[in-house]
């Protein structure tokens, strides 16, 4: 069993690596601790150190998952480098009373590999409602069923 979450990666603020601003090609990867499945946004080629994505990602999150990891990366000439990571506890999203289809806007601090605070990522989360399909045709439970009224006594009364 899992919950389906619609996560919209909105933007990030003041992205830096070693005190230097990120110029371009930033993107975000999303994954849970309970699954190896990973989702990735498109690269923001001109956002600089304030990139915007406004990209929706649908994630099926297993019920035993503890957190979702958002990692901001950028593509440089020497390969892909990490800007920072943020771990969002599932209880922050699903805890308390949050009705389905209600959108929550969240901002989380990014942490670099040296465990130093490093900027902010902005995103929204919505718990998607399951789609319920109705049977096209109702079939009787048995071939010899009738329209007669049946009464019963609960077992624990006997």
From TrEMBL:
Domain of life per record: Eukaryota
Pfam family, one: C2
Signal peptide: none
Listed Gene3D superfamilies: C2 domain
C2 domain residues: 1-108
The protein's name: C2 domain-containing protein
């Amino acid at each position: 069993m899992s919950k389906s979450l619609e996560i919209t990666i909105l933007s990030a603020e003041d992205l830096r690596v070693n005190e230097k601003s990120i110029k371009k090609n930033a993107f975000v990867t999303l994954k849970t601790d309970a699954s190896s499945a990973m989702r990735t946004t498109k690269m923001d080629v001109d956002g600089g150190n304030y990139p915007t994505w406004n990209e929706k990602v649908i994630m099926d999150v297993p019920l035993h998952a503890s957190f979702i990891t958002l990692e901001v990366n950028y593509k440089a000439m020497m390969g892909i480098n990490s800007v920072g990571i943020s771990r969002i506890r599932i209880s922050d999203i699903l805890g308390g009373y949050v009705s389905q289809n209600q959108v929550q806007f969240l901002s989380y601090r990014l942490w670099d590999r040296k465990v130093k605070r490093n900027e902010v990522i902005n995103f929204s989360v919505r718990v998607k409602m399951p789609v319920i399909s109705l049977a096209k045709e109702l079939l009787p439970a048995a071939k010899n069923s009738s329209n007669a009224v049946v009464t019963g006594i609960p077992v624990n009364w006997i």
